[in-house]
Amino acid sequence: MTRAISLHDVSKAYTRGARVVDRLSLDITPAEFLVLLGPSGCGKSTVLRMIAGLEEIDEGELLLDGEYANDLPPSGRDMAMVFQNFALYPNMTSRANIGFPLRIEAPDTDPRPRVDATARLLGIEDLLDRLPGQLSGGERQRVAMGRAIARHPSAFLMDEPLSNLDAKLRTHLRAEITQLTQELGVTTVYVTHDQAEAMSLGDRVAVLRGGVLQQVDSPRAVYALPRNVFVAAFVGTPRINLLRGLVRAPLDGAMTISLGKQFLRLPEPLSLDHQLLRVQQGREVIVGLRSEAVRIAKHSAARPGEVPLTGLVEHVEFQGHEILVHFDTGSSPAVVPELEAPRPRPGSPARRRRRDGSVLTRLRERSAAGRAGPVVTLDHPEAAVPEAAEVRLPGDLIVRTTPDLALRHGMQVPLLVDLAHLFVFDQHGDRICPHPDRLPDLGE
Ligand SMILES: Nc1ncnc2c1ncn2[C@@H]1O[C@H](COP(=O)(O)OP(=O)(O)OP(=O)(O)O)[C@@H](O)[C@H]1O
Ligand SMILES: [Mg+2]
User: Is any atom of ligand 1 closer than 6 Å to the C-beta of 44?
Assistant: First the structure.
């Protein structure tokens, strides 16, 4: 048996007046794998705990299979929770840990067959006689998962279950969780702040910001049609480039988006997407360029739909299979406040210190940058437009390329922007293009 979980306008405040979850509505269908994604403190765990019955709901309704469940005690909800810090009983073997909830539920039934079946499913038969102290982190997490599964609950609630593990193990267990939950066909709500994890696990991803749901969609739709600049910036690596632009749509000439001293010229006839930009004439917008939207045009001509831009190499980041080139295009980055500290300006003390590059210096630098300006916040664009000279931050565009290109600091490099991959957001950060009609499979 698997559950439908619905939240209708659910709110929660721990202290009066400060809502940490704000009118959240979500319909999770039976057997769905839904990921709650968002930065630290955005209310993910609180939502999960309200679903589990561990936290009271202040306003709104929780429905389980269509039945009002706000006041149902946790034991009556038939859900199993898996936490980040594998809460195993240290003095019990894996077998006893996995069997524990079964013994509570049905004291007269021998838990062994269920425990053995669960252990087989998770490939931990060899670990059943060990104590948690004799297991590695990954093994402990499997046992914790086993304890949740053995009961055959009607829903799993997982709160960052993999975040204490190293990267390799995390990827491995991620694949296991996907397979396991598909096999069991149990509704799963999975909390993480790791966008890569969310994208690879979820049937749908619900993005939260400050307790407010921003978007809930398939991973593909969240990536290709982010509702706003926050979602666009939260999802995808390397992070989407966000530049401040100005739309110019003269009656007698081509429409352009200025990016500082350069501009993107939109080809005639205007595409459906670009027609939507007409009403933005004379207004500031935020241009979003993911790494697939820009390429270095050293040895190749523009393809249809590509327009030129020039960048000054600021910094080259070697990644092995690729390099990330940080360009200065003379435009100003738009900053999403929760997601990053602003980069220091050239010549500032923070910037000069970067040369010695120690971790401590960089940390210090980051916290100094967090205090000093300029920050272009999106919520108050008009209040945060400093003098033109001040907003010239270096390395405003990061482009991914193959490692064989020899690029050095200070080189002037021709770039091509693929307008088919152009994102534009309005002053409030809401997406203007692409229009969903252009990506009908992902339509909103
Ligand atoms: N018991 C509590 N009392 C008061 N405030 C709380 C309590 N629990 C959480 N909060 C606050 O509520 C907000 C949301 O917390 P929550 O734990 O849901 O965030 P989260 O998204 O899970 O963050 P993280 O990714 O860091 O785990 C935070 O600002 C947190 O400080
Ligand atoms: Mg949490």
Answer: yes
Determine how many CB atoms are found less than 10 A away from the CB of residue 300. Answer: 11
CATH of the domain at 256: 2.40.50.140
pLDDT at 145 over 70: yes
Q: Which atom of ligand 1 is nearest to the CA of 193?
A: 25
pTM: 0.85
DSSP assignments along 238-290, one per residue: SPPEEEEEEEE--TTS--EEEETTEEEEPPSSPPHHHHTTGGGTT-EEEEEE-
User: What would the pLDDT profile of 204-243 be if each residue is shown by its tens digit?
Assistant: 999 999 999 999 999 999 999 999 999 999 999 889 999 9
Residues β-bridged to residue 318: 323
Regarding the beta carbon of 14 and ligand 1, being less than 6 Å apart is answered yes
In this structure, the residue with its CA closest to atom 7 of ligand 1 is: 14
pLDDT of 183 reads: 87
Give the per-residue SS3 of 391-404: CCCCCCEEEEECCC
C-alpha span between 413 and 407 (Å, rounded):
9
Looking at the CA of 42, name the nearest ligand.
1
Beta-carbon neighbours within 5 Å of ion ligand 2? 45
Full residue range of the structural domain in which residue 80 is found: 5-231
Q: What is the DSSP letter of 436?
A: G
Residue in this structure with the two tokens 């900053």, named with its chain if needed: 335
User: Are residues 166 and 35 located together in one domain of the fold?
Assistant: yes
Q: How far is the CA of 44 from the centre of ligand 1 (A)?
A: 8
